[in-house]
Amino acid sequence: MSAAAGPLLDRIRALIAATGPLSVADFMAMALGDPEHGYYTTRDPFGAAGDFVTAPEISQMFGELVGAFAVAVHADLGAPDPVRLVELGPGRGTLMGDFLRVAAVRPGFRRAIDLHLVETSPRLRAAQAAVLARAGVPATWHDRLDTLPAGPLIVIANEFFDALPVRQLVRTAEGWRERVVGLGPDGSLAFGAGAAGVDPDLVPPHARLAPLGTVVEVARVAAAVMGDLAHRVVRDGGVVLAIDYGSDRSGAGDTLQAVARHRFADALADPGAVDLTVQVDFEALAAAARAEGAAVHGPVGQGDFLVRLGLLERAGRLGAEKGAADRDAIVAAVDRLAGPDQMGTLFKAMAVTRPGLTVPGF
Fold first, then answer.
1. CB-based burial, 8-36: b 16+ in 10 Å, e otherwise
2. Roughly what angle, to the nearest 10 degrees, separates helices 324-338 and 311-319?
3. What is the distance in angstroms between the CA of the first residue and the CA of the last residue of the chain?
4. Structural domain boundaries of the chain?
5. What is the C-alpha separation between 37 and 30, in angstroms, rounded?
6. Which of 86, 98, 161, 359 has the fewest CB atoms inside 10 Å of its own CB, making it the most exposed?
């Protein structure tokens, strides 16, 4: 246990001592979202000076291409006015700033935008507001999805689902148990298996015959969010675009990881001071969307998605009048966003719509 660990560690240790071990989902929720000391509520983690870099921070091309995607979808929807443009977890507002620059080339789309941002961090809300002020676009902020107004919507969820809490189950000799965070002999946080069994229906079918020691993740929160959004899309029209790192097939394994200062970190050593994520189960998200009657497009690799939207052409135009150093930087950004050994295959893109709608990039 680090001597420099923050106050949230002490709070979690006291809670465990008083009430027993926490599920992994409850631990993630506290570590990321505690109002006073949670990771996302107390800091700006993005960029070179933070803990990690997301695709919008790598290059303006990412947000511009997502904007082009939305322009095309809006036209295919019949150009509804207004259209609820929603971003989930907008970070610093970088993606939306680049998105709105593209939207401006289609005045009808730009006028139709009613912008809504789902963000709980006061610090990040302030950064987003500064970006939007420069763009001259008003926005409404929400803590929850259920306060979004009715109407056709375009939802952008870039690296959003990977930070939602998951339950982890582990197969023991006594059967499936909840994987929990408890206290080790020295008082530090430690993973373990809960004493009580879990509802057999909670164990995904693909994992029920897994070997002893297998960990499987159950992303009920992510499925519920996707189900709510898919219900809205089927009812009101629109699209949900989810881009995240993960797998297109459900599997088994512990994917929880922590990152600080662009390096992997101990997930339990200093909760609230490190980013916690899990790989997104796109197959489960797709199932949640289809259960609401929605059509699912993809998932496809982020690289394929961006190239189909015109990444290479956009890079060529950006570099046409630049010097050698700037052109090299653009080429490096393309490789990082779309290269198979970078974000191109590990990250996936998936769209959810009403049945019958064709969307670009898929």
1. bbebbbeebeeeebbbbbbbbbbbbbbee
2. 170
3. 47
4. 41-164+222-246+271-351
5. 9
6. 359
CB 346 within 8 A of CB 310: no
d(CA 122, CA 124): 6
pTM: 0.94
Q: What are phi and psi of 114, to 5 degrees?
A: -115, 105
Predicted confidence (pLDDT) per residue in 263-289, tens digit: 889 999 999 999 999 999 999 999 999
Contact 23, 192 (CB under 8 A): no
Q: Residue 14: in which H helix or E strand, if any?
A: helix 7-19
> Which tokens is 330 given?
């653009």
What whole-number distance in Å separates Cα of residue 124 and Cα of residue 93?
Answer: 8
Q: Which CATH architecture has domain 41-164+222-246+271-351?
A: 3-Layer(aba) Sandwich (3.40)
Q: Are 305 and 349 in contact (CB under 8 A)?
A: yes
